Task: structure prediction
Amino acid sequence: MTVIGLDDTDSRERGMCTTYVAARLAARIEDAGGRVERRLLVRLNPGVEHKTRGNAALAVHTDLDPERALELARDHLDLAETADPRTNPGVVVAPGDPGDPAAVPDNSTVIPDAVADFSRAAVRDYHTVDDAVALAAAAGYETAHAGNGRGRIGALAAVGAWRAFDDWTYECISYRERERWGSERDVDAESVRRAADAAYPAVWDTIDCESGYPVCVPRTPCPILHGIRGDDPDAVRAVAADIDSEPVARRALFVTNQGTDAHLQSVDSVDAMQNGRAYRVTGDVVTAPETREGGHVFVSVGDDSGTVECAAFEPTKRFRDRARALRVGDRVTVCGEVSDGTLKLEKFAVRELVTTERVTPDCPDCGRSMSSAGAGQGYRCRDCGTTAPGKVERPVERDLEPGWYEVPPVARRHIATPLVRGGFDGDTHPER
Ligand code: ATP
Result:
């Protein structure tokens, strides 16, 4: 086996896309007589500033020999939009089996622990190009690059990913004819809705039901016509095939870490979080939610170690109502990337809801609110003269329930797990 990792072949303006380069490379490998076992689409740390969009890196697993694989991959680097100084493609070619060393024969070459660790850290943390180059050399891997070769970070992370992670989903990507790139996409929204409905929940995040927005159709000038995501490879392929659209030039199935929350690190305290990384942390709501300019909703969550401001930004739409429904004292688990000290909410779980509040008592005779009778002297009704020793407890109406709430599909990060996938520690309130 041979693993080819590649990354950073796209540019924001000129619209290339690393998945397309990988799909073309895989097709070329097959033309050259190689077998392609899988195409892997790995989303790396979403906080990385160099990313063009979704911080994707790609790997192709094949039986082609490593020398020939490198030759073909090098040819494909020519496709990269290297005129853009921010596009810095990299390729890493690893001989051997990409998966669990325990599952392959003793004499096979395997992905070393250090490379699997590198992949895990690439999803949750940061690397330098020098680290990637040194580790690839130590592992005996061939590399190639253009520009400053930053893409070798993602390429090496893609090489180690199959060993590093065990939760995988699928995306069937359909590509446009080249002459249409950059023009408006012709995809029949009604056929998307029908196909998506029929395949839900094996297939998710195809369409945002409430707004009707076809999430599967990108708006960027890239070669992708649509990408259908889900847990079942046959189901994502079937939905892609059922969509009426302009001609499809090429279609490829990717195994991906999309929808897996692989980026989230669980931490025990709020002060353990750092900027540029994504976390799952539990605390109490310490400030009332506040809607600020632009419609963004902010609410602070804290524990003994400190507090963090959490934001449900305007694009998260109806999720903001869930954040607004929180009250001081609620116990929650929040998930999202910390950026400039603010946790950008992707989902949260209500663990315990405040169900009562302490309020000034009402007069039992006239029903009007009593007034303070002076410091430490309780309350008194000015009209009737009735008294009460202190505040009283009153039930509060809540329109949240315990369990997990999430942003709608239209605002979902590629790597974030949709609740409909299951496996959460509590009830879920999935968005569709
Ligand atoms: P596309 O989704 O179209 O592939 P992109 O959003 O993936 O675009 P890239 O053009 O691949 O963006 O740019 C991301 C760059 O950041 C790559 O050079 C990659 O090697 C690098 N990178 C990825 N993860 C990390 C990390 N954890 N630390 C440092 N650099 C990283």
